[in-house]
Amino acid sequence: MSIKPETLVQHMSQSISAIQPSDILAFNAEIANIPGIVRLTLGEPDFNTPEHVKQAAIDSINRNESHYAPSNGTLALRKAAANFLAQKYDVHYDPENEVIITAGATGGIYTALSSILNPGDEVLIPTPIFPLYIAIAKLNGATPVFMDTSKNGFVLSPDQLKTTLEAHPKAKAVVLNFPSNPTGVTYRQADLKALADVLADKPIFVLSDEIYSELTYGDRHVSIASYLPEQTILLNGVSKSHAMTGWRIGIMCAPKVITAQLGKIHQFTVTSTTTNAQAAAAEALSNGMDDAQAMKREYQARRDYLYEALNKLGFKSAKPEGAFYLFSKIPAGLPQTSMAFCQELAHEARVALIPGSSFGPGGEGYVRISYAASMADLKTAVERIGQYVAAKQTTEAK
């Protein structure tokens, strides 16, 4: 008699049982078949990849560049990435040995945390935050230590970081993501300098995911690597800046002695990223350094409209300074459990948002709204939400 899969699955890694499938993707699938629903759920640009970038990939294919690229990425792309980061954010990396091209920023997150963490280690994570970091930490047998920032405008304060470090002196890494998914909040130069002062004398890695750096409104984006270059593993990429989510090209940078270790995990998990996609990304980062500007102007117009319109309906938000999300408090009188609210809104008003509970401590009672959608869809969503709120208020009044 053969062994059944149900028996074998009990012998799989214990780390797998510590995580659950993405409830963001699960919720998105749950409501996908509601007729006529407006989906403001997934964080994906609704723009097309620029034409000159697509042409670079086509040219690469026509040149028969269909073989393995170097594991850490083509030299052309590593040079373009290093120059882009230097020109835009004044952070400097040697493309020969301090840059790795990853399978999206996600690939960089996995490589970095898998390289840093041992079972039983701790990683400090400010929340609300995109849940990927939490899941990957758990997959590596580590314990996430949450720092709830909801009472501080969704910004990690130096005092909160210092207090957490004092309570967890052996923490291996701290994760930063700014501009933030899900809140759209970012860190200003003074904020980063203050955090860096707390971390500078600690043997701790800073994993800084700055994938939304080109979608920063107002003040110019500043990287934490400007202050902690020796401790920072910097992540960026072309997914958000050039509307290239499906091309799966990320950038991971660190001092060369650290990158040498990161490269071991990268080469044994990914081998190398797609060759013609790297040609496209090199074009994006060299001849399309400012391609994000037109998209950013449109996102900012959408942000301004949505922020004001939802505020009038009672949805209070920290005004986003980057990315393309609003993180809004559910008004009183509506279902206060974020999952229940989102399910009811989807079925009754045909508008899909993401429950705030998906993003860790401090997220419950909020919803994430993606404005990577057309203005027409945003206006339809606001109209339907307004009708839903009015109906609920009428019911309450009775």
General description of the model:
The protein is α/β, with parallel strands linked by helices and 398 residues long. The chain has two domains: 5-48 and 292-397, Aspartate Aminotransferase, domain 1 (Alpha-Beta Complex), CATH 3.90.1150; 51-287, 3-Layer(aba) Sandwich (Aspartate Aminotransferase, domain 2), CATH 3.40.640. The chain contains 14 helices and 13 strands. It has helices at 5-8, 14-17, 23-30, 51-62, 75-89, 104-116, 132-139, 158-167, 189-199, 256-269, 275-287, 292-312, 338-349, 375-397, and strands at 38-39, 99-102, 122-127, 143-148, 173-177, 205-209, 232-237, 250-253, 316-317, 325-329, 351-352, 354-355, 366-370. The radius of gyration is 22 Å and the shape is globular. The chain starts with a helix and ends with a helix.
Secondary structure blueprint with pairings:
Blueprint: H1 5-8, H2 14-17, H3 23-30, E1 38-39, H4 51-62, H5 75-89, E2 99-102, H6 104-116, E3 122-127, H7 132-139, E4 143-148, H8 158-167, E5 173-177, H9 189-199, E6 205-209, E7 232-237, E8 250-253, H10 256-269, H11 275-287, H12 292-312, E9 316-317, E10 325-329, H13 338-349, E11 351-352, E12 354-355, E13 366-370, H14 375-397
Family: Belongs to the class-I pyridoxal-phosphate-dependent aminotransferase family.
Domain Aminotransferase class I/classII large: 37-385
Cofactor: pyridoxal 5'-phosphate
